[in-house]
Amino acid sequence: MDKDVFFRLCNDLETNYGLRGSRRMSVIEILGIFLHILGHGVGNRLVQERFQHSGETVRKYYLVDAGYPQMSGYLGPYKGERYHIPDFRRGRQPTGPREVFNQAHSSLRSVIERTFGVWKKKWKILKTMPNFSFDKQVKIVIATMAIHNYIKRHAQRDPHFEESKNYQNEGTEEEMVEESQETNGPGSQEIEVLRNQITASLMGD
């Protein structure tokens, strides 16, 4: 995180969210320790050594690939049609409503996967989550999301975001095989209607 973004975040947390320092630590140090733990995935002992403090102070739809069954809450692509972005780049442009939808679906999935890749790379604690309670782990995930979005919004340049621009979703052979499997679950008709409505809007109908 850039220094300017760090101090801006400190100011926002103090001004808008009531974060206060203690007798032993300032807001700057509290936030610095918190970000150090999230970014490096270190334990309490290493934090104590690094900062010289004792241990006491320290309706929604999931966008899925074709391997998922068609069911309520899970929006997958049309099966049996071209899907992956490289397929469209190497060949002809989308032909027909279903390929138009699949191209948009694949592009959006690529953005999501790239976002998660950058997110996990920036916050190493997500790869080696300590044995905290479930509620605390949920709060850590939410905190890293919030700070991640804050940096994205305010940093002029960030090495992790810059690297993500080269990411491409090439797909996998396993995923291509799964596309041939026709399975439906509860609410499949609802998803079919929704997908057709989105396709019509993409076609301008």
From TrEMBL:
InterPro entries linked to this entry: DUF8040 (IPR058353), HARBI1-like (IPR045249)
Membrane-spanning segments: none
Pfam families: DUF8040 (PF26138)
GO MF term (any one): metal ion binding
Protein name: DUF8040 domain-containing protein
Compositional bias of kind Acidic residues: 171-181
Region (Disordered): 157-193
Classification via PANTHER family: NUCLEASE HARBI1 (PTHR22930:SF221), PTHR22930
Organism annotation: Acer yangbiense
Cellular compartments per GO CC: nucleus
Lineage top rank: taxon: Eukaryota
Domain DUF8040: 1-61
